[in-house]
């Protein structure tokens, strides 16, 4: 059975996910068979495994860092918020129910056996499990139904390192206060602290570190600097949304929908030098981009309403009419059509008109489509013509089916040699259900060069690197930064001693 180490945080966005990913990489580099685990994740950024099962993207990143294939055993429970009060509950990769927060808490214990079974199976297959908590273990109003923080530490008999974000301020109070609010039997699991996102001279921090250690009788295992790494973030707290570049060669604007999901679809462009991907959340921020992308969403009709009420739809349509290329992925593709109908109330209920930029109608169904896909671009028009024949690989996660009337964008290769059409292609508007459609070798760079040509600029200025090699380099960079900043001898000693 595997030994475990757990990373908890003083709050959401304290950096738990990236620290866990870095440790996964370090342990793998040191020759251990390692896997990540998070009992319950809440995120709209999800992934489909080879078995057609859905899991949180953060654990996919951690699995990749560990050199492992993603498995729902690593994230047995995923909550995908549908509105401010409810979520779609996914258990072991499949939709369980749509529930309000209060309903979920009443039924939460029914999920515990799945969490136990997943962890036990994963533990049998590995040497070390890196467990990630959620939010804070000191949410005293939620402790009774906890299955992801100290409950998981008990179940796994996992020593805990508590991470605090010093960039927010108040890190010493957050770390010491969290320990203070733990129950007496919980405190024995907390073996040390991590101070994360530090900027400045470490010497100035030493007096505070000594005082924290004296007050709590627990060591500081590391002070991790603000690491400049480009790794997929977990959810809408992503710092990716706040990025501002200088003057780019290619400007891609991804609409920041209220319930945006799978925004990592644009990650391939991070590996193309000269391309800027930004996320405008207001119509006045849209500007005059070279390409507009309407991304996936957990509530297509609700976010289309927001587009309409905020003026974003009018701004996009105005630019589209003037010739600006527009691309929709999954929910964004559905919005671009003529109408949307939800007869079973799976998202919003009722019917509404679409943006009318593509000739198709979407009807939401009871069952979710979850599948990995491979295929190729057909003969799309406009700037996408440069992608003709290029191969794609990605996944689909959607409730609706679109009655396609226009020319298909891609052909999907099914089993036994069958082929099906996906998406639609127009002169300057396109759409597809395939997440990861830009990840294939050369696709992002080819599209960027075509956008350069459309501006009358030299496409040779666009430089591309291998996406897979780029991601691997970022995982290694993350691991190197954490290894340098943390006392890894102490970490291994904590893992070996256990509770």
UniProtKB/TrEMBL annotation:
The active site is at residues 330, 435. It comes from the Bacteria. Keywords: Cobalamin biosynthesis, Glutamine amidotransferase. One of its GO terms (biological process) is cobalamin biosynthetic process. GO terms for molecular function: ABC-type vitamin B12 transporter activity; catalytic activity. Belongs to the CobB/CobQ family. CobQ subfamily. NCBIfam families: cobQ (TIGR00313), PRK00784.1 (NF001989). Catalyzes amidations at positions B, D, E, and G on adenosylcobyrinic A,C-diamide. NH(2) groups are provided by glutamine, and one molecule of ATP is hydrogenolyzed for each amidation. This is Cobyric acid synthase. It comes from Candidatus Allocopromorpha excrementigallinarum.
């Amino acid at each position: 059975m595997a030994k475990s180490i757990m990373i908890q945080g003083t709050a959401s966005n304290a950096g738990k996910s990236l620290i866990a990913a870095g440790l996964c990489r370090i342990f793998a580099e040191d020759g251990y068979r390692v896997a990540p685990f998070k009992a319950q994740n809440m995120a709209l950024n999800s992934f489909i495994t080879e078995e057609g099962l859905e899991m949180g993207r953060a654990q996919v990143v951690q699995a990749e860092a560990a050199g492992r294939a993603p498995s729902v055993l690593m994230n047995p429970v995923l909550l995908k918020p549908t509105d401010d009060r409810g979520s779609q509950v996914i258990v072991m990769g499949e939709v369980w129910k749509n529930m309000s927060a209060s309903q979920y808490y009443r039924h939460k214990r029914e999920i515990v056996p799945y969490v136990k079974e997943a962890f036990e199976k994963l533990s049998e297959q590995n040497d070390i499990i890196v467990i990630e908590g959620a939010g804070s273990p000191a949410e005293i109003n939620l402790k009774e139904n906890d299955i992801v923080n100290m409950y998981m530490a008990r179940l796994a008999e996992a020593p805990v390192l508590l991470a605090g974000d010093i960039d927010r301020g108040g890190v010493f109070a957050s770390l010491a206060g969290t320990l203070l609010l733990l129950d007496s039997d919980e405190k024995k699991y907390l073996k040390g602290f991590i101070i994360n996102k530090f900027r400045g001279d470490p010497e100035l921090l030493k007096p505070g570190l000594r005082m924290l250690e004296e007050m709590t009788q627990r060591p500081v295992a590391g002070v991790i600097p603000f690491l400049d790494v480009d790794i997929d973030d977990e959810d809408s707290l992503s710092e990716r949304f706040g990025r501002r570049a200088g003057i780019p060669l290619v400007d891609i604007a991804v609409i920041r929908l209220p319930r945006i999901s799978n925004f990592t679809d644009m990650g391939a462009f991070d590996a193309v030098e000269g391309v800027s991907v930004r996320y405008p959340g207001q119509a006045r921020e849209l500007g005059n981009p070279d390409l507009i992308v309407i991304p996936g969403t957990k509530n297509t009709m609700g976010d289309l309403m927001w587009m309409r009420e905020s003026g974003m739809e009018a701004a996009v349509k105005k630019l589209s009419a003037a010739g600006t290329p527009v691309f929709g992925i999954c929910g964004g593709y559905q919005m671009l059509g003529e109408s949307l109908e939800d007869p079973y109330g799976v998202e919003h209920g009722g019917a509404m008109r679409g943006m009318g930029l593509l000739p198709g109608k979407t009807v939401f169904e009871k069952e979710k489509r979850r599948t990995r896909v491979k295929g190729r671009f057909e003969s799309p028009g406009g700037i996408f013509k440069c992608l003709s024949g290029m191969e794609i690989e990605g996944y689909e996660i959607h409730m609706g089916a679109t009655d396609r009337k226009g020319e298909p964008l891609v052909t999907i290769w099914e089993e036994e040699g069958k082929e099906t059409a996906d998406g639609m292609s127009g002169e300057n508007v396109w759409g597809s259900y395939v997440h990861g459609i830009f990840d294939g070798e050369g696709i992002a760079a080819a599209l960027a060069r075509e956008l350069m040509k459309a501006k009358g600029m030299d496409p040779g200025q666009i430089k591309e690197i291998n996406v897979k090699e780029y991601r691997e380099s970022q995982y290694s960079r993350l691991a190197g930064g954490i290894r340098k900043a943390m006392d890894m001898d102490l970490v291994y000693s904590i893992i070996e001693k256990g509770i």
